[in-house]
Each structure stands twice: as C-alpha cells, then as structure tokens.
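Shapes recur. One chain:

:::
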Amino acid sequence: MSTKEKDPIEYSISSTYKVNDVIYHKVFDDIGTVLDIGITKDNEKKMTVSFKKTGKKRLIMGVLAKK
C-alpha cells in the first residue's frame, strides 16, 4: 500500500474544503492539511490548516465575489 500524500488542491477563497484535504497556498508557497472546519462570528466558513513551512493558519473559504 502506498503512503504517498494526496495531490494538493490549490487554495481559493471561493472554494470549500473538508477535513484532511491537502491544499497548496500560492502566497505562502506551502502545502498543508485541513485540520478543522468552522464558522466565523460573521457567519463565514473558516478552516484551520497545518502547513509544512508556515505552521497553523486560519483561512476563510466559500466566499463568493459580490456583484
């Protein structure tokens, strides 16, 4: 059985993710794993990601562009 990591998904604020997704953040130039999902006090979806180089970060997700 292979222990190869999942191919990372490029992070986009408009996309949604789930726990254990592996993402690539272009600005950080880093790969991380989604640890948990929640909701901000402003009712936006958020996630905590553990990145290899930059550590734990909280990121917003599922935000659609306003027209």
Observations:
- The two ends are 48 Å apart (CA to CA).
- The longest strand covers residues 30-39.
- The chain has one domain: 9-61.
